[in-house]
């Protein structure tokens, strides 16, 4: 079986490598020639654990290719996946489908055989219908089916999410489209992964509904963290106490500086707009978007307060810049408004992230000092702010912090450190949703 994937970004490259691992012949069509040459040279343009080896192994086996032209890529492909970006459209918050429709049009004009066009990109409800209309208009001579197959990949664990998914969602109106995708996902049937077949609109909405609900859980526990600080409770115990309830579940109940990344911010905003235009506004999602935006902006003020109300002239070490560990993704990262807020208040910021330094540099103020490692960032710092919970930061011992830092203030935005151990070592520690002594 052969498939083509249009777009060699995060979703397209991970999906292509994993499908190839299933034994499928996969052509990943990447329009950016610089990126394509990197892939041909074995260089992965994104950071995702294990992806480099997976790509290299399947490319060497001949199952994964990066053709120079669309015509070569989609030749004999039974399914053509659209995996291009759908960023937030400026001005109204909707998903920008410019790249999606451009890719679909190119595919339709190039196809010379019946095939299924599958949207892998996150697209608003109704996109599949519009693609079907395009197919009827541009290629009435071909039997072109349309399906929706949203991705549920978490950055940092995308390969395991693909290989051992909670579920696979396929939206299609025709049995032919369902059969093609059923054969494609056959290896997952063998491990009894749930395959959910629905209509086009339902599959498109499932993706937004899932991300909206998870974003709502994060926002809820963050608001509980604020309440815990006021009443002397501990949000970690709150999360455990409610997470053990099977109806709620333990995942996504980790208090922090607010959610970021490539999915939750843009998908909650898009869902809000979809609901408004459909005449069924989602007030819950509206609140989630507003509360999360305000929370990220408030983190700088939290640090200033922990530093005695003034950070002018002080050196602040910021550990972690990516929106989460095990990725180099800086999109909507909570570190960005935090660092900008500290700089605007006169602080000197030294920052380090194990993977996101290259991506972070153009997004941060020019006077932010990016260091070679955590130790360099901590040297001479008046305060430490932990933003992203990379494992190497968890291993920082109080004695090491005391040796490197000039000051004794620690603001732990991920509740990674042991408050008692740090206070016993003479540090003034503040976390999220933890009562101050």
Structure description:
This protein is α/β, with parallel strands linked by helices. The protein folds into 3 domains: 2-198, NAD(P)-binding Rossmann-like Domain (Rossmann fold, 3-Layer(aba) Sandwich); 208-289, N-(1-d-carboxylethyl)-l-norvaline Dehydrogenase, domain 2 (Orthogonal Bundle); 297-430, 3-Layer(aba) Sandwich (Rossmann fold), CATH 3.40.50.720. The chain has helices at residues 10-21, 33-40, 51-60, 70-74, 98-110, 127-138, 158-163, 175-184, 186-190, 200-231, 235-243, 264-277, 283-306, 335-344, 357-360, 374-378, 391-394, 398-404, 419-424, and strands at 2-6, 25-29, 64-65, 79-82, 115-119, 144-148, 168-172, 195-198, 315-319, 348-352, 369-370, 383-386, 409-412, 428-430. The strands form 2 sheets. The protein has an 8-stranded mixed β-sheet, with helices on both faces. The chain has a 6-stranded parallel β-sheet with strand order 11-10-9-12-13-14. Helix 1 crosses helix 3 (51-60) and helix 5 packs parallel to helix 6.
